[in-house]
Amino acid sequence: MQHDMDASEWLNTPEPLRLSALRGRVVVVSAFQMLCRGCAEHSLPQAAKLHQAFAREDLVVIGLHSVFEHHAVMTPDALRAFVHEYRLGFPIAIDRPQSHSALPATMQAWGLRGTPSLMLFGRDGVLAYEHFGHLDDLRLGMVLGELLAHSAPKATAVAAAAADSPAPVCRIN
Amino acid sequence: MQHDMDASEWLNTPEPLRLSALRGRVVVVSAFQMLCRGCAEHSLPQAAKLHQAFAREDLVVIGLHSVFEHHAVMTPDALRAFVHEYRLGFPIAIDRPQSHSALPATMQAWGLRGTPSLMLFGRDGVLAYEHFGHLDDLRLGMVLGELLAHSAPKATAVAAAAADSPAPVCRIN
Amino acid sequence: MQHDMDASEWLNTPEPLRLSALRGRVVVVSAFQMLCRGCAEHSLPQAAKLHQAFAREDLVVIGLHSVFEHHAVMTPDALRAFVHEYRLGFPIAIDRPQSHSALPATMQAWGLRGTPSLMLFGRDGVLAYEHFGHLDDLRLGMVLGELLAHSAPKATAVAAAAADSPAPVCRIN
Amino acid sequence: MQHDMDASEWLNTPEPLRLSALRGRVVVVSAFQMLCRGCAEHSLPQAAKLHQAFAREDLVVIGLHSVFEHHAVMTPDALRAFVHEYRLGFPIAIDRPQSHSALPATMQAWGLRGTPSLMLFGRDGVLAYEHFGHLDDLRLGMVLGELLAHSAPKATAVAAAAADSPAPVCRIN
After folding, report:
1. How far, in Å, CA of B118 to CA of D123, rounded?
2. Which residue among B73, B77, B86 sits closest to D81, beta carbon to beta carbon?
3. C-alpha distances in angstroms, B38 versus B43, B132, D41, D55, D97?
4. What is the pLDDT of residue D154?
């Protein structure tokens, strides 16, 4: 996987992102279709949570709208409405449609099996992990923690983990 | 925190565990009280999930029953019934009660603020992370991924993450 | 509200349904938009659960796709793809678009405030309850139980409630 | 089931409750054990929700602590600590222990099969519905709606259902 994402259009970003330009950061690419239920209910909320939890210098979250079915209705305009209604704020690439295949260009080049799919790139820009289907938070966190730790200026994960919890506690008086 | 856990009794293990003997593995100590709601609903199920997900050579999960209130009813026998009903399978240390304090010995020595509390020790046996309250899966995973990666014989986290997901997917035919 | 639903098209039914022809049954009309997040995540799964739980002679569930925004992308074809991906099996009326208003005909005639909206009709065909937003299961069940009991040949609700539960139990040996 | 509850003690009420004195109201009796996981996680939170949602003149929620295992540790003092930690506010009867049986008196007289168990009494004081295991909100609501409607001075269920919902909506501007 030497290629970058091949996008026909980008949302939520003033200019296209290129993996090669993000060297030094961990990059999460979340491939989805707007009418894929597992995407809407699990992987996109998870991507949004990641996007909010991290400083951009450490981790960049990118959505990849890879339409391989229902092409006529999952158009860029439909995606824009979806992104608005679901309040998605991270950059989203529209995987380039191909006239000779039902699969869009990046999905085909990367050999994705469907949606949701998750691709994690290390700070060196190399694909470190790929998953078809939803990856639960614990396992995703583990891979990210490892990737963030590699060649990091400081212990990013441990620092980032310090967050408040809404669950009830028993406090010593 | 140079001391080991000071336990008056152990459950789910034929013999006491000592942190010093677990050098080379990541150790998760989950301090709880059986009648602490946040423990029963969040931190103990999470500890059980960790205990199931990992090979023992990589990660060891230890429960620490640190009773600092309602001492008369959170007895070892009550804990045994609780552990049975909640199907907890990981080793559990009963933090040693002290006659001169409401706090048990390990809780006091470690300066814990209440329950649930989470202590993560790296492969070097040093406390790497501590959290009072429930730590969500994503953040816990990140810290663990980083700790597991340090001096690991192989890329543990990435390997361990390969698990199936029950969430719905859209598969390319 | 004397009018029936004014639909331009129906899905999941060989022929249009009319409220007037459903006299004698309780009817649940769940107004939604396919790109309304609260609909996709809460009210439509609830409608599907109702559709599965009841005999058709007692209760009929009808979806009403009332598009009042993003008209260009929430087309009948897009809805068909959505219904397929979300595995919705109950009859769905497409609320008739109007050239002079952003609101479709039934939504306007019924004075709905948005989506999701729930309308419950008693066995007498009269609107008994209306709710804008998601109605939780307990409250929805209460209204349905009351409506089903009115003039019912038998105690429907009590009979229908006998279902198994997946939650853990403590059984007397 | 002609007998009333046979309790050795009551919590959260200045004096014992008797079903016979609650004629005219719907009564929900939720039998539980404090160390029964399905009770702690499902049936007791549901009972607490019912207790908060209804006016006492319409519906009375009663907990029944029916200990049939681990007797030595599920004592009244332990229950008090549990009730405090889980913030349970509804009246709770401690089912009377019996020297000749592991089952407490009410549990045996009522023929309960274990915990959680739910008994719903109509306004006429007659047992209308019984369920072993957790009963989901929709089905519980249906039975309650029917019971509340019987001989009610007004349409209780429909009136009670008017509550706000935290789920996202799409509002017509």
Report:
1. 50
2. B73
3. 7, 11, 11, 29, 30
4. 47
Distances (CA, A) of C102 to A110, A151, B141, C26, C111: 42, 55, 47, 30, 13
Tokens of A114: 């469907």
Bridging pattern class, strands D127-132 and B114-115:
unpaired
Does the domain made of C7-12+23-135 have the CATH classification 3.40.1030.10?
Answer: no
The answer to whether the CB of D29 falls within 8 A of the CB of D112 is no
Upstream peptide bond of B104 is cis (omega within 30 degrees of 0): no
Percent of chain D with pLDDT over 90: 80
To which CATH superfamily is domain B7-13+21-160 assigned?
Glutaredoxin (3.40.30.10)
| For testing contact with chain B, the best of D70, D83, D115 (most B CBs within 10 A) | D70
Joined tokens for residue D58: 């319409």
CATH architecture entry for D7-13+25-160: 3-Layer(aba) Sandwich (3.40)
Tokens of C165: 């539960």
Is the four-CA dihedral D16, D18, D22, D26 of positive or negative sign? positive
* Identity of the residue in D113, D138, D157 whose CB atom sits nearest the CB atom of C171: D113
Q: What count of other Cβ atoms lies within 10 Å of the Cβ of residue A167?
A: 16
User: Is B134's pLDDT higher than 80?
Assistant: yes
Nearest CA-CA distance, residue A2 and chain B, Å: 21
- Give the domain ranges of chain C: 7-12+23-135
- Side chain identity at residue D104, one-letter code: P
pLDDT of residue D41: 95
Neighbours of A55 (CB within 10 A): 10
How confident is the model at residue B171, as a pLDDT? Answer: 81
Task: Dump pLDDT digits (tens) for B84-109.
Answer: 999 999 999 999 999 999 999 999 99
Spatial CA neighbour of A43 closest among B168, C133, C125: B168
pLDDT for the residue numbered C117: 97
- Across C156-167, average pLDDT: 52
| B18 within 8 A of B25, measured Cβ to Cβ | no
SS3 B129: strand
Task: Please state the pTM of the whole predicted model.
Answer: 0.88
Q: What does the block give as tokens for A118?
A: 């998750």
CA distance D64 to B55: 43
Q: Is the peptide bond before D104 cis (omega within 30 degrees of 0)?
A: no
Contact of B145 with chain A, judged by CB distance below 8 Å, is answered with yes
Instruction: Point out which residues pair with D32 in neighbouring strands.
Output: D65
Closest CA of chain D from B142, distance in Å: 28
User: Which chains pack against D, by 3+ Cβ pairs within 8 A?
Assistant: B, C
In this predicted structure, what is the pLDDT of residue C155? Answer: 45
Q: Is the pLDDT of residue A145 over 50?
A: yes
E strands of chain B, at which residues? 7-11, 26-32, 59-65, 92-95, 114-115, 117-121, 127-132, 170-171
This complex has an ipTM of 0.87
